[in-house]
Write a structure and sequence with these properties.
This protein has 553 residues and is α/β, with parallel strands linked by helices. It contains 17 helices and 20 strands. The radius of gyration is 40 Å and the shape is elongated.
Length: 553
């Protein structure tokens, strides 16, 4: 038989039933006392005595007991029990209990949330001159919570509390004067009330007073004074003040310009979840101001701000992701050293303007990369060896006018490339720079270039004595007799080239010069008049080469 079944037994006497009920009620109220950290005998006696006084209907005891349950001090925290005792005391006119019960209705703790009930009890306490209740009642009128919105009533109750020196109410009254809500707009009065609250160390008021100094509202504009008040609020942990102070340090407004301090304060705000602070910190990482440039961290902070709905952060994050910039690793000297995750580098990459050099192997085997836009890199001078080796999906590159050097095998194996235009500034092309680019149809040097010259998609030195490289997609070529040397890897991967006539003055064929020319069937040396040095593996992989021209040797 279960416990409650006992009550149904006819043989239980009425006095026994009463005893059991009293026992159960005692357990209900005393159990929390047994479920907390051990108390001293005196503390236990005090709580027991308070319980007894509350049960006798003493309002002060009821309010104190409710507070213990609300805070979980000496008893197990229980909002429902706290609300029960606050209600008991509030109905007896206990001013603190009325305010506390209103707080519980406002937040929905221990009771079903009800703005109307919150308003009701705040008014009860406010009419008894409770400053906090007056301030809260002003807020309810301002927001229209539990009552029809009424700015004049909000001002009335804020003023009642402010005149009792409640700093929060003074700050709120300052706001009403500044915005002209429920009262004639008056910046001087706003400053007056903001200052009273700020001097009581209320961080929100310190920030607001700083804004008045910054904008010159109600007093003379003074950025140094603004910075001082922002600092006071920031040191108390107010995120928006920390972010504003960071901005002032970054721009040198009201303080001496200091990027490290800008980072410090923006980070403080960002770590507290302030969206503006998160965006600002992301921007510093994006620009490399006060910190090492880091697109990944920039994207992380932009993302946090974007998640909070900050439109500017959403736009910047979208731009970063479209450019793949968060994946780039760039040293402080502007050297792009690599990619954080090559599997995520897909589609188009717009290189940022601070890149001065691309290190060797930086984009090695980034097969999903399809386009690189160098146009913003006005200071890029050097593309290192094997920088884009094996980027088979790469179809388009736009090299900047500043580029001076392309390293050995920089674009080797970029089989998707169709067209490359080289700038006038270029003065060094490494061996095999465009080797094994089988689909490259156009390889053109700017006419103004003083080091190189291009003709029929083949690049020569300007004096036409050395053949540097050819587009992998060529099918035929006439090499001018002025050429004395064919650079190593010059025709590597020209899979459509079937026949070559070598020039009269040729003396050197570099290593691997014609490697991989699988359709090359004839090489004509007959016009050559000099002894020719042929480098190792010069014709490696030319599996169709069956004939050397008559009188070639």
């Amino acid at each position: 038989m279960d416990f409650w079944g006992v009550f149904k037994m006819k043989q239980i006497k009425k006095k026994e039933l009463i005893f059991i009920k009293v026992f159960i009620m005692t357990v209900v109220f005393m159990l929390p006392l047994l479920c907390v950290s051990p108390l001293t005998a005196d503390e236990t006696d005090e709580i027991r005595a308070l319980q007894q006084e509350a049960e006798k209907g003493l309002a002060e005891a009821q309010n104190k007991l409710a507070g213990l349950y609300f805070e979980g001090k000496g008893v197990t925290q229980n909002y429902e029990t706290a609300a029960y005792w606050y209600t008991k005391a509030a109905k007896q006119g206990h001013i603190l209990a009325q305010n506390n019960l209103a707080d519980m209705f406002l937040e929905g703790k221990g009771v079903e949330q009800s703005y109307k009930q919150a308003f009701y009890w705040y008014r009860k306490a406010a009419e008894q001159e409770h400053a906090w209740a007056q301030n809260s009642l002003g807020f309810m009128y301002k927001e229209g919570w539990g009552v029809e919105q009424n700015y004049k009533q909000a001002v009335y109750w804020y003023r009642k509390a402010a005149e009792q020196e409640l700093s929060e109410a003074q700050n709120n009254l300052g706001f009403m004067y500044k915005t002209g809500r429920g009262i004639d707009q008056n910046y001087e009065s706003a400053v007056y009330w903001y200052r009273k609250a700020a001097e009581k160390e209320l961080a929100e008021a310190q920030f607001n007073l700083g804004n008045m100094y910054y904008d010159g509202l109600g007093l003379a504009k003074d950025h140094e004074q603004a910075a001082e008040w922002y600092l006071k609020a920031a040191e108390q942990g107010l995120a928006k003040a920390q972010n504003k102070l960071g901005w002032m340090y970054h721009n040198g407004v009201g303080v001496q310009q200091n990027d490290e301090k800008a980072v410090y304060w923006h980070r403080k705000a960002a770590e507290k979840g302030d969206a503006e602070g998160q965006f600002s910190l992301g921007w510093l990482y994006y620009q490399g101001i006060g910190v090492k440039k880091d697109y990944k961290k920039a994207a992380e902070w932009f993302g946090k701000a974007a998640d909070q709905g900050l439109a500017e952060a959403q736009a910047r994050l979208k731009e970063l992701e479209a450019q793949n910039n968060p994946l780039l690793v760039i040293d402080k000297d502007g050297t792009l050293t690599g990619i954080t995750d090559k599997t995520k580098l897909q589609g188009k990459l717009v290189l940022p303007p601070e890149v001065k050099k691309i290190a060797e192997n930086a984009f090695y085997d980034c097969t999903a990369l399809t386009e690189i836009d160098f146009s913003a890199c006005t200071g890029l001078v050097d593309i290192g060896r094997w920088a884009f080796l094996g980027c088979t999906g790469l179809t388009e590159i736009r090299l900047p006018a500043s580029l001076a050097k392309i390293g050995y095998w920089a674009f080797d194996g970029c089989t998707g490339l169709v067209e490359v235009r080289l700038p006038a500034s270029l003065n060094s092309i490494g061996k095999g720079a465009f080797a094994d680019c089988g689909n490259l149809r156009k390889l053109i040097v700017a006419p103004e270039n003083t080091t190189y010259y291009s003709k029929d998609n083949v690049i020569y030195t300007r004096n036409m004595k050395k053949l540097i490289c050819a587009a992998g997609g060529i099918t035929q070529i006439f090499i001018p007799d002025t050429v004395t040397e064919i650079e190593g890897w010059a025709f590597d991967g020209c899979t459509g080239l079937a026949e070559v006539r070598l020039p009269a003055n040729l003396t050197v064929i570099g290593e691997w010069a014609f490697s991989g020319c699988i359709k090359l069937a004839k090489v004509d040396f007959s016009a050559c008049t000099n002894r020719i040095e042929i480098g190792e593996e010069a014709f490696y992989g030319c599996t169709n080469l069956t004939k050397v021209g008559e009188q070639s040797f």
